[in-house]
Write a structure and sequence with these properties.
With about 140 residues, the chain is mostly beta strands. The chain contains 1 helix and 8 strands; from the N terminus they run H-E-E-E-E-E-E-E-E. It has one domain: Beta Barrel (Lipocalin). The longest helix has 13 residues. The protein is globular, with a radius of gyration of 20 Å.
């Protein structure tokens, strides 16, 4: 009778090293200039689950703010329109802002790995607020 619990404990201890986190920690290694934002710079395909639409978002470093990112067409506000975000570790904060006339956006995101981001955000337009969940995949 005592061998069954001992066997389960032994099996658990042997399998424990096989368990790993789902988040790829390679993303935290900045490029040569030491800027952690570099891993996000590029063109991303965005799929909003609630609206069931897909669109392109371009992410670049804000040349005027060493902590900030510029996200062109975030929340499908239009090419040439930019929302800002701040990267802290694996988290992105999209502070409440008016990126273009008639739109108020706010949200947060997480880097899943080098090629995928997830966001939850709200858009208020014309007095109506809508919440979205979106997945960004690198192009």
């Amino acid at each position: 009778m005592k061998t069954l619990p001992l066997f389960r404990l032994l099996a658990l201890l042997l399998l424990l090293p096989l368990v790993s986190s789902c988040i790829d920690d390679e993303y935290i290694d900045p490029d040569d200039d030491g800027d952690s934002r570099d891993v996000l710079v590029g063109t991303w395909n965005c799929v909003e689950s609630e609206a069931k639409i897909a669109f392109t978002v371009k992410i670049s470093k804000d040349p005027g703010d060493a902590d900030q990112l510029l996200m062109e067409n975030f929340a499908y506000i239009g090419m040439g329109e930019f929302a800002t975000a701040v990267l802290s570790g694996v988290n992105l904060d999209v502070p409440e802002q008016v990126p273009c006339e008639g739109y108020l956006v706010k949200g947060s995101g997480t880097m899943v790995n080098h090629d995928q981001l997830t966001f939850s955000y709200s858009v208020t337009a014309g007095g109506d607020k809508t919440d979205y969940n979106a997945t960004f995949t690198r192009r």
